[in-house]
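Customer escalation, tier 2.

The customer says the design service returned an amino acid string that "doesn't look like it belongs to this structure." They asked us to rerun it and document both sides in this ticket. The original structure tokens are below, unchanged.
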């Protein structure tokens, strides 16, 4: 019972409509990914919904030392406005010299709590960069590939790569420098084809 409350404390009131079995499975998932992140195992794992996504993102932020690169849709709020996401990213931003780069695929939601916070903070913090993908470049990618996947890369070794944006499904790894490097190169192309917000 004590373990269950840990995940409830992390994810908050949004869990109250979920079954006890699902909450228990979330706790098991969280315990597993903590183990992977603490021990730096190069093991790919999946996340299957917004609760998994919030837990994974919180650990990515918690483990960050120098750079967080996020390619997101529009900060719609389902994950980024959760208390867990916001708390862990705020904590990461207190790390000296840590850089945060966010590129939005589309115009960010003006009412997103996290977007408002970052937009306000970037004026006083030159380590925070907010950009929007050039729409001609976006159209070209969609025309050629059908869609654009969102992803986060941390410290050139950890990542979360969405395979289903609508369902928040993704594959992740806390110690895969090869794939993280490839994602960082892709991020660089997106960065070069985006404009500052």
């Amino acid at each position: 019972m004590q373990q269950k409350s840990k995940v409830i404390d992390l994810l908050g009131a949004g869990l109250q409509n979920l079954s006890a079995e699902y909450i228990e499975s979330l706790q098991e998932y969280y315990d597993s990914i903590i183990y992977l992140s603490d021990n730096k195992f190069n093991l790919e794992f999946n996340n299957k919904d917004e609760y998994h996504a919030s837990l994974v993102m919180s650990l990515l932020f918690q483990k960050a030392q120098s750079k967080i690169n996020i390619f997101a849709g529009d900060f719609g709020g389902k994950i980024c406005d959760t208390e867990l996401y916001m708390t862990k990213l705020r904590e990461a931003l207190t790390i000296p010299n840590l850089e945060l780069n966010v590129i939005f695929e589309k115009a960010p939601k003006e009412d997103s709590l996290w977007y408002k916070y970052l937009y306000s903070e970037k004026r006083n913090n030159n380590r925070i960069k907010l950009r929007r993908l050039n729409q001609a470049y976006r159209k070209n990618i969609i025309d050629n590939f059908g869609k654009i996947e969102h992803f986060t890369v941390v410290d050139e070794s950890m990542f979360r790569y969405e395979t289903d944006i609508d369902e928040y499904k993704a594959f992740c790894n806390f110690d895969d420098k090869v794939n993280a490097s490839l994602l960082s190169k892709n991020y660089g192309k997106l960065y070069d084809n985006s404009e500052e917000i």
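Tier 2 assessment: The sequence is consistent with the input. The chain has a mean pLDDT of 92. Helices lie at 2-11, 20-39, 50-63, 83-92, 113-122, 135-145, 177-192. Sent an explanation to the customer and offered a walkthrough call.
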